[in-house]
Design goal:
Largest sheet: 3 strands, antiparallel
Distance between the termini: 73 Å
Shape: elongated
Order of helices and strands: HHEEEHHHHHHHH
Number of strands: 3
Length: about 260
């Protein structure tokens, strides 16, 4: 018969697994963290993770807890907080009651940057690839603002079109290409292709691609392949927006 302590461990492990999955942690990290916490708490736990669910079971008891979730935005700060908490618990620095309290606090805490920081970050990310192209100062400055415009467009569309997958990436790529080619056509910019490649960087799913490769190398072929496919679809959506804007401008005779 399952004891109250085992129930508590099962609940907190399922919650930890959900937080890590929703925050963008890779599958091996989630399973290892959950099982370590369970083992440290004196309960044998088995964890299996897919991209949309976390299964946590008592190894010696016929009891399993399923937590359904969905792919969301990455929040690596929460992943780091959970990992740090797991290390402290394994080292005996915190008690199980502390684990329950702090996990609840991490789950409820909204970790996000303010909009000025996000906008500045998007601009700086958009400028960095231009240094590789050895761009002139005018294109460098234009890429900064084009990247911000594309990022803000993607965020706005993402809030409005929540039921339409990949719509925000299409919109972001469209605005970036539209601005880049328009500025070149007006004589302000010089190399539209370089500005487009640079300005789409805030939209590129770099973390998703990295996690998918790590999962595949760790032997989690299904989740790694699905995550890689999702990242490739995002990249295709960005490219589709760029191609759409370029085609429209070409038909209008602007390029």
């Amino acid at each position: 018969m399952t004891t109250s302590h085992e129930h508590a461990v099962l609940d907190v492990c399922a919650r930890i697994g959900r937080i890590l999955l929703e925050s963008g942690a890779e599958t091996p990290r989630i399973e290892e963290t959950v099982e370590i916490i369970g083992r440290t708490a004196g309960v044998a736990i088995s964890c299996y993770v897919t991209l949309t669910a976390v299964f946590v079971s008592l190894t010696n008891q016929p009891e399993t807890q399923l937590t359904k979730t969905k792919l969301g935005a990455f929040n690596l700060q929460k992943v780091d907080d959970i990992n740090q908490l797991s290390r402290e618990f394994s080292a005996g620095q915190v008690s199980f009651d502390d684990i329950v309290t702090r996990v609840a606090a991490i789950d409820q805490h909204v970790i996000d940057f303010n909009w000025p920081t996000k906008i500045l970050g998007a601009g700086l990310v958009s400028v960095a690839p231009m240094l590789v192209f050895i761009a002139d100062w005018s294109d460098l400055g234009l890429a900064f603002f084009i990247g911000i415009a594309g990022y803000l467009t993607a965020q706005l569309v993402g809030r409005k079109a929540t039921a339409t997958p990949y719509a925000k990436e299409v919109a972001g790529g469209f605005v970036i290409a539209l601005l880049a080619w328009s500025l070149v056509a007006s004589g302000i910019g010089h190399h539209a292709e370089n500005m487009i490649v640079s300005a789409v960087m805030p939209l590129v799913p770099g973390v998703a691609l990295t996690n998918s490769m790590r999962e595949i190398m760790a032997g989690h072929m299904i989740s790694g392949t699905v995550r890689a496919l999702d990242a490739l679809l995002i990249a295709a959506a960005i490219g589709g927006g760029v191609v759409l804007a370029t085609t429209l401008l070409h038909l209008c005779g602007m390029i």
